[in-house]
Design brief:
Blueprint: H1 3-6, H2 8-14, H3 20-51, H4 57-104, H5 115-157, H6 159-207, H7 209-214, H8 218-270, H9 276-289, H10 296-301, H11 303-317, E1 339-346, E2 356-363, E3 368-372, H12 379-386, E4 394-399, E5 402-403, H13 409-415, E6 416-419, H14 430-435, H15 443-452, H16 456-461, H17 479-492, E7 497-501, H18 509-522, E8 527-532, E9 543-548, E10 551-556, H19 558-562, H20 567-571
Parallel strand pairs: 3-8, 3-9, 6-7, 7-8
Antiparallel strand pairs: 1-2, 1-4, 4-5, 9-10
Length: about 575
């Protein structure tokens, strides 16, 4: 793969390819605006110098009209340039955001990044695309076009003057930006990482505040936030100093070039090779010409930061999907579907041990099975495979006789729904949290499913009922209520198979028994797979699979397993003496 296809800056520019015509128009309008500014000062110089010789007023009329026209065209073309380039940049940015959201909607990339860092990638690093296209693409092209035209005009007036101006523009528009880019490369790369670290530490501190206070770790977390903020502040100061250096160096080159042009012009007038009026035009044109390259040092100084942001952005976009069948158009057949798992193997890396090492299980329509085992046995890995968050590394998972990898992930998730260990509750109302599963459902349907999960009475007791705000991550609900709400949401999607992944985690024993009993009762009639390390409710299961170290070590009914020596019997404290 060539460097151009892997360099983040080139890849960010390539994102604008569908709107290349708009950006080209923006460059043309920007060149006209800048040329109008240079022409305005050059015409004004000619007008003032000529007026000093007291010519007839008719001799100045064309210049007067040209001055007014250039003043108007400068403002109009600058406005149109901003309108066109920003419109193209915002449309490109919208496309990039859609690509990022579509990539993250597959869910598995999210697990690679901390939440605060992911927010920084979604906001700051994605916005860097707009900065590059608006500030890093148009100004250099405009500078090249207008700078070449101005040097040509100056050369036509006085060849040494044109060469001197070309040298000054190359120094201010190329040498100074290159130095600024080199100096800003390291701080720019650190700035993107520091911004992500500050965002991560802030989010972790805010959302983990109750636990941090409870364990006396809040001061340590605050110090971490202060360190991240201090690092970002130091980098920002370095960036400000670099911008000051670029502006100062550019101004110094401009001043020296104008003075040298003035001295050269005076000498040319004295030896008769240049007239006084052309000399005035030459000097003021040189002064106006540096407007062309003025933005470039600041643009170059930020390239390091933009490049680092681009690398972080493409780190998300380039994350390979952990699931196949995403382009498939296959549709699951109607009716009940049997789930069959054969020799399922899965691990999280080529050098990692097998999380699942040859699992076999069956779930017939309307039946209930439990997958039991200690923490780390591979139970939640099984859930992630069934819900299409990961694909098997070996073996098969069939639904209705066809491998689930043959279907789009969303098609499988419509048939297999679940309640995770820590169900996510959005910072909205109860109604909106429920309607995520079925946006068009009525309030009557919502109350019906709430009755089914035994949450309706609690909701009716709330002052706002279904319009009650649940708070960030559902903090205004108890743990049991969050699990019931998640189950209600799952049932609204009318799944054919329901996966309950550790639904009673973090609940006290009394609440745990009640919640699990209600969950199983609400799921009655639906094929249910209960994943748990707890021994509660297993007598209600049609079949129990005991998994240890990724393998099924026992299977059978509750009574059969109690009557057989093994892990299940020992877990119940009934080992033979």
């Amino acid at each position: 793969m060539s460097r151009l296809t892997t360099e983040p800056l080139w890849r960010m520019v390539a994102l604008a390819r569908p709107r290349g015509a708009r950006f080209a128009l923006g460059v043309l309008l920007g060149a006209l605006a800048t040329a109008s500014g240079v022409g305005l000062l050059a015409t004004a110089a000619w007008l003032l110098a000529t007026a000093a010789t007291h010519p007839p007023i008719t001799a100045l009329s064309v210049a007067v009209v040209a001055t007014r026209a250039l003043g108007v065209s400068r403002g109009v073309t600058r406005y149109l340039e901003r309108l066109v380039t920003h419109d193209a940049a915002f449309r490109t940015l919208a496309d990039v955001r859609v690509r990022v959201y579509e990539r993250l909607a597959r869910t598995e990339p999210i697990r690679r990044f901390r939440s605060g860092d992911l927010v920084s990638r979604l906001v700051n690093d994605t916005d860097a695309t707009q900065d590059l296209l608006v500030r890093g693409l148009t100004p250099p092209l405009v500078s090249f076009l207008v700078g070449a035209a101005v040097v040509g005009l100056s050369t036509a007036l006085l060849v040494p003057g044109g060469l001197l101006l070309a040298t000054g523009l190359l120094l201010a528009g190329l040498a100074v930006p290159l130095v600024a880019a080199a100096l800003g490369k390291g701080p720019g790369a650190r700035q993107a990482a520091a911004r992500g670290e500050l965002s991560s530490s802030l989010v972790d501190t805010l959302y983990g505040a109750p636990d941090l206070v409870a364990y006396g770790a809040m001061d340590q977390a605050v110090r971490r936030v202060k360190r991240a903020d201090g690092e970002l502040t130091r980098i920002a100061r370095r960036d400000a100093a670099l911008l000051g250096f670029g502006a100062g160096a550019s101004a110094l080159v401009a001043g020296l070039t104008v003075w040298a042009t003035l001295l050269l012009g005076v000498a040319a007038v004295e030896d008769g090779t240049l007239g006084p009026i052309p000399m005035a035009v030459l000097v003021l044109t040189a002064l106006a010409a540096f407007e062309v390259v003025a933005p470039l040092p600041a643009v170059a100084a930020r390239l390091g930061s933009v490049r680092a942001s681009g690398a972080r952005l493409f780190d998300v976009l380039d994350t390979e999907s952990a699931i196949g069948g995403t382009d498939s158009a296959e549709i699951l057949p109607e009716g009940d579907l049997a789930l069959k798992v054969r020799d399922l193997r899965m691990r999280y890396g080529t050098d990692e041990p097998w999380a699942l090492d040859g699992i076999d299980l069956d779930l017939e329509p309307g039946r209930r099975i439990a997958v039991l085992g200690p923490s780390g046995a591979g139970k939640s890995t099984l859930a992630s495979v069934l819900l299409r968050f990961r694909d098997p590394d070996g073996g098969t998972v069939e639904l209705g006789g066809t491998a689930i990898t043959a279907y789009p992930a969303d098609e499988i998730r419509r048939a297999i729904s679940g309640v995770p260990q820590d169900p996510h509750v959005f910072a909205s109302t109860l109604r909106e949290n429920l309607r995520l599963a079925r946006p068009g459902c009525t309030d009557e349907e919502l109350w019906s499913v709430l009755e089914r999960v035994r949450l309706a009475e609690d909701v009716r007791a709330m002052p706002s009922g279904l319009d009650t705000e649940v708070g960030s991550h559902g903090t205004r609900l108890s743990g049991g209520m969050r699990h019931r709400l998640a189950l209600a949401r799952a049932l609204l999607s009318a799944p054919r198979i329901l996966v309950l992944d550790e639904p009673t985690t973090h609940l006290d024993p009394e609440t745990r028994d009640v919640v699990l009993a209600d969950l199983l009762d609400a799921a009655r009639g639906c094929a249910t797979l209960l994943i748990t390390h707890d021994l509660t409710g297993l007598s209600e299961m049609d079949r129990i699979y005991v998994i240890v170290a990724g393998r099924v070590v026992q299977q059978g009914s509750h009574a059969e397993l109690l009557g057989t020596e093994g892990w299940y019997r020992r877990a119940h404290g009934l080992a033979s003496r």
